[in-house]
Amino acid sequence: MHRQFIADLQARDNVDEIYRVADKQVRSNRQGNDYLLLQLMDRTGQISGMRWNAGQSLYETFQKGDFLRVLGTTQLHNGMLQIIVQDFETVHPSKVTHEDFTKTNPGEVEQLLEELRERLGTVKNAHLKRVVQAYVNDEQLIDKLRRAPAGIKTHHAYEGGLLRHILDLLRIAEAIAPNYPQLDREMLLVGVFLHDLGKLDELSFDGDLSYSDSGQMLGHLVQGTIDLDRRATQIAKETGLPLPDPILWRLQHMILSHHGQLDHGSPKIPMTIEAIVLAHIDDLDAKVNAATELIESDRNTDSDWTAYSPIMGRKFFKPSANKATGS
Questions:
Q1: pLDDT tens-place string over residues 59-73
Q2: Spatial distance between the Cα atoms of 19 and 51, rounded to a whole number of angstroms
Q3: Are 144 and 138 in contact (CB under 8 A)?
Q4: Which of 105, 189, 226, 299 gets the most CB atoms within 10 Å of its CB?
Q5: Burial readout 4-18 (b: 16 or more C-beta within 10 A, e: otherwise)
Q6: Where are the alpha helices (DSSP H) in 102-184?
Q7: This prediction's pTM
Q8: Any idea where the HD/PDEase domain is (predicted)?
């Protein structure tokens, strides 16, 4: 039977397919009746599912990260496709095809890792090189990086998304660096590599996509800074060559300031040239990725505009996702 991928669903389709639960909530309508709001996903995207007249008892029969066989009908609501769920049942992970639920196949992940190592391998500064090696030689960290998303909902929120985000930023950084001779290219590359690695501890991604307890309390900027300090201490212990304080501080500053503004979660605003570049290209990559996914998930063919996105604070012109043609 042909799989009903989320990206292929159209309004008024009858649905009988297995999807993974990215999120679930119990809500009440205006009449005070409970219903389930589900976020269902496969490798092609995410879609909301509404199960009316269902409360806490049904909510507790499955968990985020579980696979559900969903029966229902699709409909458009405010320009967004959703599934009105008539029934569902949990499906054991052994009964599903893993490749249907990840955007990045294992072979592609290994190619991305190889490119990551090649780009970081151009770092010649001895101190920065030892920092890079402390991370890339950590097999446990690399295994997490193979699987980690960069976000929960809108920012490369899929298996391998963090690796792709880091590599995209390394490519952008390499393209920018020649235009600014005052920029320390190697410092920028290493800062780009390190900036989001705290998400390996901030996020939980072995089942459902959620935040770990330490991630809720500290956040990945702080967690990444703490981890870098720990690795710098280990480097000094193993090699007898301490990381010079100015290098450590500049790398930690890039991690702490990469959200760019205090009200965006950075405890410090960027105060080095490399930190300024990192904050801007990080914001660029996240926003372009989020906008692209919003455009691709919008199913309202009667308009060239997406529905309003509360997260992004705007609508998007859908043809802008296609390359311009003509003279």
A1: 999 988 889 999 999
A2: 15
A3: no
A4: 189
A5: bebeebeeebebebb
A6: 106-120, 126-136, 139-147, 161-176
A7: 0.78
A8: 158-296
